[in-house]
Automatic annotation (TrEMBL):
Ranges in a coiled coil: none
Cellular compartments per GO CC: membrane
Keyword Nucleotide-binding attributed: yes
Taxonomic source organism: Streptococcus danieliae
InterPro entries xref list: Sensor_HK_TwoCompSys, Sig_transdc_His_kin_sub3_dim/P
Protein name, UniProt field: histidine kinase
Amino acid sequence: MLGLSLLLLTDYNLLSLFVASPSLGTYIRFCPSSLQVLLLFGKNFPTLSEKIAEDRERKRIAREIHDTLGHALTGISAGLAAVRVLVDRDRIRAKEQLDNISVVVRDGIRDVRASLHIGYGIYRGRLNLQKVILDLERKLTEA
């Protein structure tokens, strides 16, 4: 008996069907949306699952960076607009606003660097995805 494993994944608009036979070391990917059929030998199901998890984590990190930058840049833009109004009316408040903007910039840079460090480490195999997720979970529960 071949012992095939089926895994149906949806990722945005792409629908893929993965068929894996660990005993044969075979992995087949059907992508009806792009009419692709891919057959690779020497892949086993745990490796496939790890690759899928790593890809999802990379996409999550990319979204996180996008969201972090978007939030920071929006805050910076609004803060600078306030400084423009305050600079002629109240120099002390304008300086305070510039200090606030500086904090937003530093925090944004720190967050992006942290996300890039994690993503690059996973990509290069220097960080274990499972360990990264467990560390993030621990940090969230401590907060």
